[in-house]
Amino acid sequence: GAGVSQTPSNKVTEKGKYVELRCDPISGHTALYWYRQSLGQGPEFLIYFQGTGAADDSGLPNDRFFAVRPEGSVSTLKIQRTERGDSAVYLCASSANGYTGELFFGEGSRLTVL
Amino acid sequence: GENVEQHPSTLSVQEGDSAVIKCTYSDSASNYFPWYKQELGKRPQLIIDIRSNVGEKKDQRIAVTLNKTAKHFSLHITETQPEDSAVYFCAALEGTGGFKTIFGAGTRLFVKA
């Protein structure tokens, strides 16, 4: 595809609900990242995939957050029992191989937990 | 792990003036330092980057300098234009066998016409 695609662009949910956010990276990019960006802050690292495996999930805030990338392309970030503090823009990024450095970001999924 | 500090948080300049944004990092093994620009409601996009084997890099009106000894790097924008108004993030790629990029908190640049 032309760029990193994220869906939905906006998600409003109620506290306690389950949410899935999808990321479709640039074709051929083996590295995929999830970041969370709160208002007025820089992107905060959540998890990094190299291929199908989660190479580093040290940024996931707690066990309510989980991400998968079963076929090494599309990734889904899953949030259980959402809390108001989870409200943020969730950014996905991909890079060619994780070594070259440049991240290509999607437009983000804005999550609002009421 | 890596920690990146950025300042100022807000910077206002007159059109045509220069703007400088400064960052420090903590992981001496980090070897790649990108800068991203994020316009309101848009995705962050890379504008320039520098690797640890060089001290300075220029691309038209923007330049980045790196001091590995002091562990700080800076973004310089000359002849600023209103379209330079955006949030700028510095970042560092962890060098300790990991591949995560850690971002600073951002600098909101206003260029007044």
Name its key features:
heterodimer; A: 114 residues; mainly beta; seven-stranded mixed β-sheet; four-stranded antiparallel β-sheet; globular; B: 113 residues; six-stranded mixed β-sheet; five-stranded antiparallel β-sheet; 11 strands; 0% helix
Q: Based on helices, strands and strand pairing, what is the structural class of chain B? A: mainly beta
Into which percent range does the helicity of residues of chain A fall?
Answer: under 10%
- Parts with pLDDT < 50 across at least 5 consecutive residues of chain A: none
Q: Rg of chain A, please? A: 13 Å
How much of the residues of chain B is beta strand, in percent? over 45%
- Helical content class of chain B: under 10%
Give the biggest beta sheet of chain A.
Answer: 7 strands, mixed
Task: Give the number of DSSP strands of chain A.
Answer: 11
In terms of quaternary structure, what is this?
A: heterodimer
Question: What portion of residues of chain A belong to β-strands?
Answer: over 45%
Q: Figure out the total of helices of chain B.
A: 0
Helix-strand pattern of chain A, N to C?
A: EEEEEEEEEEE
Biggest β-sheet description of chain B: 6 strands, mixed
How would you portray this structure in words?
- The complex is a heterodimer of chains A (114) and B (113).
- By secondary structure, chain A is mostly beta strands.
- Helix content of chain A is 0%, strand content 48%.
- In chain A, the strands form two sheets. In chain A, strands 2, 4, 5, 6, 9, 10 and 11 form a seven-stranded mixed β-sheet that branches. In chain A, strands 1-3-8-7 form a four-stranded antiparallel β-sheet, with no helix packed on it.
- The model of chain A has no long low-confidence stretch (mean pLDDT 94).
- Chain B has 113 residues and is mostly beta strands.
- Chain B contains no helices and eleven strands.
- Chain B has strands spanning 4-7, 10-14, 19-25, 32-38, 45-51, 56-59, 62-67, 72-77, 86-93, 101-103, 107-112.
- Chain B is globular, with a radius of gyration of 14 Å.
- Chain B starts with a strand and ends with a strand.
- The mean pLDDT of chain B is 94.
